[in-house]
Amino acid sequence: MNIFEAIRNDHDIQRDLCDRLTSTSGNSSDRKQLWKALKEELEIHADAEERHFYSPLIHNDMMQEHARHGIAEHHEMDELIEKIDDTDMDSPAWLTYAKQLCEKVEHHLEDEEHTFFQLAGKVLSENQKTDLATAYQDAMKERR
Q1: Would you say 48 and 140 are in contact if contact means Cβ atoms under 8 Å apart?
Q2: What is the helix (H) or strand (E) element at residue 83, kind and residue range?
Q3: Residues 6+ apart with CB under 8 A from 32
Q4: What distances in angstroms separate CA 76 from CA 65, 88, 106, 119, 141, one per listed residue?
Q5: N or C: which end of the chain has fewer CB within 10 A?
Q6: How far is it, in rounded angstroms, from Cα 135 to Cα 126?
Q7: How many other CB atoms sit within 10 Å of the CB of residue 112?
Q8: Are 22 and 95 in contact (CB under 8 A)?
Q9: Which among 8, 87, 66, 10 has a CA at the least distance from the CA of 42?
Q10: Helices and strands per DSSP (H, E), number in the chain
Q11: CB under 8 Å to 67, separation ≥6 — which residues?
């Protein structure tokens, strides 16, 4: 497996959690469980992705701006997560913020899969792609 496949697998988990979370209502046990799962998934994914995908690419002139943009989007998601955590789950604002987060997540995933991956594919060797996937997956397993 290469780094792109490994990351895309986790992107699918995030999409599923977002779809399920934004279909919940009120202060339900489903909402609490899905929110906890999504928040954790986003946190460990961002950390592993920044360490084992963005970091090796940020020093490449062609990739630097894209890597910085991806990291900035992770920060924007962190801010939305804090906003959601500070909002009562029964509040209509909670679902509004959760939907905003999921829209931001979807935008980020699309950017990566349709632009960043293609550019990174030109910069990384096949061995690097495989080695990065192993390091990324190990980091994800360790935190899950």
Answers
A1: yes
A2: helix 64-85
A3: 89
A4: 16, 20, 13, 23, 25
A5: C
A6: 14
A7: 23
A8: yes
A9: 10
A10: 7, 0
A11: 54, 55, 57, 58
Which of 43, 45, 18 has the alpha carbon at shortest distance from 31?
18
**Do residues 123 and 57 touch, judged by C-beta distance below 8 A?**
yes
Length of the chain: 144
Dihedral pair phi/psi, residue 63, rounded to 5°:
-105, -15
- DSSP class of residue 54? I
Rg (Cα) of the chain, in Å, rounded?
Answer: 16
Residues in Cβ contact with 77 at an 8 Å cutoff, skipping those fewer than 6 apart? 42, 46, 101, 104, 105, 108
The pLDDT, as a whole number, for residue 144 is 87
Q: What is the mean pLDDT of the chain?
A: 96
SS3 86: coil
The token pair that represents 77 in the structure block: 């998601």
Nearest Cα to 102, choosing from 9, 55, 39?
Answer: 39
| Tens of pLDDT, residues 93-125 | 999 999 999 999 999 999 999 999 999 999 999
pTM of the model: 0.94
